[in-house]
Amino acid sequence: MALACSTVAVPPDPIDVLLSAHGLRRTGAARLVLGWLLANPDTSYTHAQLQAALTDSTHSLDRVTLYRLIDRLTQVGLLLCRVDRQRVRRYQAMPASVKAMPHFECQSCHRDSPLVGALQANALDLELAAQNALQALQALGYQGLSFDLALRGVCADCAIAAAGARQSTP
Ligand SMILES: [Zn+2]
Fold it and tell me: How remote is the CA of residue 158 from the centroid of ligand 1, in Å?
């Protein structure tokens, strides 16, 4: 069987595809930042944490470039920005769990996870109530409505770790 095309098709880099699809330039820094956040999708990071994580012997990223990039990536919806309890901005790759509502955001380890099982069944009532409210607003002519049903607190892992730390202090 003859191949229709003689050139070997190189699969496009998924990071490049994302950058292009969102109208961003495929710079080395953009690939580095988005690639790293997509490889660490469950947790949100501060500017300082990102800069520390992305600066090593092979890469260096100046602060201004990083800030600008993060802003751009957030504007186009590739990153999610949240402000934590200390009023510090944290960024993560737009998590699927934000769309999978309802979800839980741990304020300690900053992991983001969809609610499962019985918890979800309870929270779905809340989601239904919110959907009804949205429909009512839509009927009144409101536009561009959205809602984000997130439960926030400290996850069981963090709570256990904190309790352990308290016990070990004299
Ligand atoms: Zn946690």
Answer: 4
Convert the pLDDT of each residue in 22-71 to its tens digit.
Answer: 899 999 999 999 999 999 988 899 999 999 988 876 777 888 999 999 99
Q: Is the pTM of this model over 0.85?
A: no
Q: Are residues 81 and 57 part of one domain?
A: yes
For residue 40, tell me if it sits in a domain. yes
CA of 156 to the centre of ligand 1 (A): 7
Q: Are residues 73 and 138 in the same domain?
A: no
Residue 2 lies in a domain: no
Who's near 40: CB < 8 A, 6+ residues apart? 92, 93
State in Å: Cα 136 to ligand 1 middle. 36
